[in-house]
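Run folding on both entries below.
>entry_1
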Amino acid sequence: MDSLEQLESALQASLDDLRISRGERQALREILSEAELSPTQRTLLRKKAFNMASNQLQGSPNHGAVLEWLETICGLLEPAHLAQTSSGETEVLFAPGNAPRQRLRTLLQYASDKVDICVFTITDNTVSDEILAAADRGVAIRIITDDRKAEDVGSDIERFREAGIEVRIDCSSHHMHHKFAIFDDHTVVDGSYNWTRAAADYNQESLIVSTELALVRKFQKRFSELWNAFTETCPNPHSNR
């Protein structure tokens, strides 16, 4: 059985179960990595996945699960389509305007394994909904944010906690002012852009998206440092203010 046939068989097996566990996602990712498929082969594989989903929809009442399966498969195929090299690819998006917000939503929709978010304030429900949807389909989400902004009216941090997402805060009189996130250890976003409606609709902001390996690794290191340094709650919420 060649790599394409192996992948098709694995896709069909996961579709029959209407679920893809984290172990299955990792196995599919390893098969894709070893197969070294060409862009044309990846396109054909995506088409096969769409055909499989279409056939399944005709005989299954659980349309939502089928669509979630297809979304996960597309996410698994997408990173390899933008192969991560030492040089990588970089794009810059500006606000006001919907481009930064939509790019964040797309990255969250395609995330298949893990997302580490380190953002000063998160209040844009359209982005928060995608974070919750990713967590619901099994993506491991971790969030670092500023302790004071977490308590602001409109902050979605409590929604994330209630959904079981791990959150850590800085418990400091100074601000945790970063606005970066790492998707599947493959793509990093950074810039002035807070994940808020005001940033999208009114503010002059920038968002940089990069798959440059060295850059991703530096942000991974910083996230780990902050994650280990911060806590889930502040012992005394007013002691450092």
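>entry_2
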Amino acid sequence: MIVERLQSIMSHYELSASSLADAIGVPRSSISHLLSGRNKPSLDFVLKLIKAYPEVNLYWFLSGKGEFPSEISVLDGEHNPKKDLVTNLKNKPTQPKGKSVSKIVFFYDDGTFETYHPKK
């Protein structure tokens, strides 16, 4: 049940209902209604939860299948998408011999971007 999975998330992060609501930007009553079984989570709620806590596996949260926390939470205590991407690209087994990554561009949803040049 989603209520149990939501309680698991709150327990894992040691969150109260009000602190979870504040963290994901929803009214505190939303959490209360979800936990009591009065309401089911909206798409907006689910997206905010997944964005705030990337270790929450979407499929697990919705269906109960899969695992929580997902493996990305085990990265030296902190998830660093840029570092992970660069590491994965450098260690990519299908990378053609004699070729290496020269530039990575990160595009952000606010319209800005950042260019990363890995050290050779």
